[in-house]
């Protein structure tokens, strides 16, 4: 992978000037390369990784689930056509073709366990070519994209004495 891309993958906030110093290139050349990566689709989006326990709305956070999906591939188009129909739902945040005992791994998000369950039962499971689904609700994040999350300080209760 290109040095510029490696640096931006580790920290997208790194400025072109900082990257230029790190790679011993001119800032203009780095800016031009970044602009090219953005326009040709190599860089799709810049993203912040948030620790849900540290945000103000941690009690109203979205519910996320990993859903394993077994599908019957369609003749002449394989898994792609079915995957395209599945990832077009707004609830599906990520969709991966994987090896193993199931075919697709979805990351799905909803306002509650019930909304995710409703998505699975009314939209995903009844789809033609979907054979089976298994849903795993995410209970806590410890690490994401190589970053560890520190936990919010808990209120300590005082000991009761008589």
Question: How are the elements arranged and paired?
Answer:
Layout: H1 3-10, H2 16-23, H3 27-39, E1 63-71, H4 80-87, E2 92-97, E3 104-110, H5 113-124, E4 130-137, E5 143-144, E6 147-148
Antiparallel strand pairs: 1-3, 1-4, 2-3, 5-6
Descriptive tags:
6 strands, two-stranded antiparallel sheet, single chain, 5 helices, four-stranded antiparallel β-sheet, 2 domains, 21% strand, 162 residues, alpha+beta, Alpha-Beta Plaits, 30% helix
Could you tell me the radius of gyration in angstroms? 21 Å
The helix fraction, in percent, is 25-40%
Count of runs of 4 or more consecutive helical residues: 5
Q: Tell me how many strands there are.
A: 6
Query: N-to-C terminal Cα separation, in Å?
Result: 66 Å
Q: How many separate domains make up the residues? A: 2
Give the structure's gist in a few sentences:
With 162 residues, the chain is α+β, with helices and mostly antiparallel strands. It has helices at 3-10, 16-23, 27-39, 80-87, 113-124, and strands at 63-71, 92-97, 104-110, 130-137, 143-144, 147-148. Strand 2 and strand 3 (104-110) form a beta hairpin.
Task: Please explain how this structure is put together.
Helix content is 30%, strand content 21%. A hairpin with a 2-residue loop joins strand 5 (143-144) and strand 6. Helix 2 crosses helix 3. It has 2 domains: 3-39; 54-139, Alpha-Beta Plaits (2-Layer Sandwich). Strands 2-3-1-4 form a 4-stranded antiparallel sheet. A two-stranded antiparallel ribbon has the order 5-6. The chain is α+β, with helices and mostly antiparallel strands.
């Amino acid at each position: 992978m290109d040095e510029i891309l490696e640096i931006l993958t580790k920290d997208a906030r790194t400025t072109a000037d900082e990257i230029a110093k790190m790679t011993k290139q001119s800032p203009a050349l780095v800016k031009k390369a970044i602009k090219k990566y953005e326009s040709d689709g190599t860089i799709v989006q810049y993203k912040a990784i948030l620790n849900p326990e540290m945000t103000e709305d941690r009690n109203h956070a979205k519910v996320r689930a990993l859903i394993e999906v077994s599908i019957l591939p369609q003749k002449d188009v394989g898994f792609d056509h079915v995957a395209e129909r599945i990832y077009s739902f707004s609830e599906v945040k990520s969709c991966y073709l994987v090896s193993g005992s199931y075919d697709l791994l979805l990351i799905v998000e909803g306002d509650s366990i019930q909304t995710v369950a409703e998505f699975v039962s009314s939209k995903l499971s009844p789809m033609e070519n979907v054979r089976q689904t298994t849903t795993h609700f995410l209970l806590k994040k410890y690490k994401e994209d190589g970053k560890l999350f520190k936990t919010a300080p808990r209120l300590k209760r005082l000991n009761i004495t008589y």
